[in-house]
Amino acid sequence: MELKLGKLSPEVLEKYLLNMTGAKSPDLVVAPSLGVDFGVVKHGKTRLVVSSDPVTGVRERVGWYAVNVNANDVATSGNAPQFLQSIILLPEDASVRDVARISSEINRTASDLGITVVGGHTELTPGLRRPIVAMTAFAFADSYVTAADARDGDSIVLTKTAGVEGTAICASDARALRGKLDPAVARRAAGFLRKLSIVAEARAAFATDAVHAMHDCTEGGVLGAVYEMSRASGLGFVLEEATIPVAPETAAVCSVLNLNPLRLISSGALLVAVAKGKEKDVVAAVMRAGSRAAVIGKFRKGKRTLVHEDGEKEEVTDAPTDEIWKLISRQGL
User: Fold this and answer.
1) Where are the beta strands (DSSP E) in 217-288?
2) Most buried by CB count within 10 Å: which residue of 134, 157, 169, 204?
3) pLDDT tens-digit map of 12-45
4) pLDDT, tens digit, for every residue of 291-304?
5) pLDDT tens across 258-292, in order?
6) Using CA atoms, how far apart are residues 243 and 156, in angstroms rounded to an integer?
7) 211-216 and 270-274 as β-strands: parallel, antiparallel, unpaired?
């Protein structure tokens, strides 16, 4: 089986990784599973929510990205992240200035989100072309939801718009867009970086008691996240392309670079499985938290179907490869 850039396929994960969990423990209450953003360990009446993620495809503000991406994964439980550990791997030509820049980004971003950094590891690593920052985020919780808890008939609600993170990544690399996009549009697109956090909207949605499951739209974009959520929950879905919000800046960037916004990395956008009839409650709560939300489909038993804007139906049989890897390969970034 050939491996591709980005996340491993569900088949490889299920065969070679998800069951390799070492010693068994009755305290592990949410074990590794396809599409689930975090694990949960019980300690008395308290639950510890734990998640890890690397940032591998960006050059600028790596520390900022890493904190937000990991905080987002924990936030999909409905709880605010409280602690972080970081691993910073640097290219051989890195300088002390690079170390200071990344560590200060981590410090400022964690402080803004109320997260304490408790330790980690930093080194120069042979063979790297860009820094890689991997983190583990933690939160103590009394209750939570996972991406595996969606129910038949739940509405699929998306916060913000498709391709948030991917828009910022593409627009921040001048080589990818030089001479192809209006500079004002490129500046606004690069500003999507400020939309990366889902912590506030996830907590607001969870507080409505109408949420069965949540999932962060990371690699593979909105379509990849819906697919992962459906696999984790043992359900199919119907997704209406015409109802999925795509910002004008994202549409412009994707048009110039020939990318599909629904398959473009979308950290900053949150998927929420909402009990039927409670959609307005969740949308209103997300808006009060300073974001926006839209109903884009529903979970159901049976097939996984994407309904295109022209009415054509496409059965989604596998997780899509993220469009950002297509760009990185094409541009040699």
Assistant:
1) 236-240, 270-274
2) 169
3) 988 899 889 899 999 999 998 888 889 999 999 8
4) 999 999 999 999 99
5) 999 999 999 999 999 999 999 999 999 999 999 99
6) 11
7) antiparallel
Written as six digits, the tokens of 264 are 């473009």
Could you list the beta-strand ranges (E) of the chain: 28-30, 39-43, 46-55, 83-90, 116-124, 132-141, 155-159, 211-216, 236-240, 270-274, 293-300, 304-307, 313-315
Q: Which of 135, 133, 136 minimizes the C-alpha distance to 94?
A: 133
Rg (C-alpha) for the chain, rounded Å, is 19
Q: What is the pLDDT of residues 199-225, one digit of tens each?
A: 999 999 999 999 999 999 988 999 999
pTM of the model: 0.90
Cβ neighbour number for residue 87 with a 10 Å cutoff: 16
Fold of 155-331: Phosphoribosyl-aminoimidazole Synthetase; Chain A, domain 2 (3.90.650)
Return phi, psi of residue 306, to 5°: -105, 120
Contact present, 62 and 101 (Cβ < 8 Å): no
CA angle (8, 13, 147) in 5-degree steps:
95
- Coil, strand or helix at 40: strand
Euclidean distance between CA atoms 66 and 85, whole angstroms = 11
Amino acid identity at 58: V
Q: How many residues does the chain have?
A: 333
Domain boundaries, the chain: 10-141, 155-331
Q: Residue 110: what pLDDT?
A: 97
Angle 325-260-237 (CA atoms, 0-180°, nearest 5)? 105
> Which letter does DSSP use for residue 35 in this model?
T
* Residue 112 confidence (pLDDT) above 50: yes
Q: What CATH code would you report for 10-141? A: 3.30.1330.10
Cβ neighbours of 130 (radius 10 Å): 15
Per DSSP, the chain holds a count of helices (H) and strands (E) of 11, 13
Half-sphere exposure of 49 (CA within 13 A, CB side): 24
